[in-house]
Amino acid sequence: MTLKQLCFYKIKKNIILLIQITKNFFLYKNWFYLDPIYLLDQIKIVGPDSIPVVLITAFFVGMVFSLQIIKEFLYLNAVNLVGTILSIAFIRELSPVLTSVIVIGRIASSFAAELGAMKVTEQIDALYLLEANPFTYLVMPRIIACIIILPLLNLLSFSTSLFSSSFICFAIYSVNPVLFFMTALSSLSFADIRNSCLKSIIFAFIISSLSCLYGLSASGGARGVGNAVTSSVVSALLSVFILDFILSYFMFSDVNSVFYSI
């Protein structure tokens, strides 16, 4: 088998597995066999254990982004627009993508490594022998946990970034925090928050599905598990960045300028 044929075979195999994961997820009968204890365990891994990383990252990203923005608006004498620009940038783009990248680095790699280790040690085959569905028992709780938690982490990241931005604007450039939050909150709309959460839900499904997909298709011992983890992280990152552009184009292309509300 040539390299080209091998690549085509792997791509075809992964697409088929991804379609099967999507199909099984929306198959209502699988929900009746869901283990609630295992689901709560996965929610804890994805959610509370990720909060410190999200808070620290969002805090410093908000401050760095503010440092670059505030100087230009002070030069233009448009301080009242700082809160508007930052809140829109955070809620529409930075927070969903930033949170997804953190989850990819921390959770997707963990999912792929854990399922890959189970695959190469034939634990997945043992589940089939016990007439247990590996998708219902192993994959579905991980997907649901990501779908539940990622939008919440997104909103937490947005709030943290906004507060750190207001702190920098006040501490270094003496921008009134009241003015900052008035313009920031007045420019936000329900559609922005809804679309931001919808982005996070789609990202969560893609991230968890790809990581589980590569984990279940791992082979070749420890080296195969390592390759599966690397492939899952790279594929999830590329998918998030590509999907972010597509979703942003369709979600925000017909949205009026936020300056109309000021």
TrEMBL record:
<dbReference type="InterPro" id="IPR003453">
    <property type="entry name" value="ABC_MlaE_roteobac"/>
</dbReference>
<dbReference type="GO" id="GO:0005548">
    <property type="term" value="F:phospholipid transporter activity"/>
</dbReference>
<comment type="similarity">
    <text>Belongs to the MlaE permease family.</text>
</comment>
<keyword id="KW-0813">Transport</keyword>
<feature type="transmembrane region" description="Helical">
    <location>
        <begin position="197"/>
        <end position="216"/>
    </location>
</feature>
<keyword id="KW-0150">Chloroplast</keyword>
<dbReference type="Pfam" id="PF02405">
    <property type="entry name" value="MlaE"/>
</dbReference>
<feature type="transmembrane region" description="Helical">
    <location>
        <begin position="50"/>
        <end position="67"/>
    </location>
</feature>
<dbReference type="InterPro" id="IPR030802">
    <property type="entry name" value="Permease_MalE"/>
</dbReference>
<keyword id="KW-0812">Transmembrane</keyword>
<keyword id="KW-0472">Membrane</keyword>
<dbReference type="GO" id="GO:0043190">
    <property type="term" value="C:ATP-binding cassette (ABC) transporter complex"/>
</dbReference>
<feature type="transmembrane region" description="Helical">
    <location>
        <begin position="162"/>
        <end position="185"/>
    </location>
</feature>
<feature type="transmembrane region" description="Helical">
    <location>
        <begin position="135"/>
        <end position="156"/>
    </location>
</feature>
<feature type="transmembrane region" description="Helical">
    <location>
        <begin position="74"/>
        <end position="91"/>
    </location>
</feature>
<keyword id="KW-0934">Plastid</keyword>
<protein>
    <recommendedName>
        <fullName>ABC transporter permease</fullName>
    </recommendedName>
</protein>
<feature type="transmembrane region" description="Helical">
    <location>
        <begin position="228"/>
        <end position="252"/>
    </location>
</feature>
<keyword id="KW-1133">Transmembrane helix</keyword>
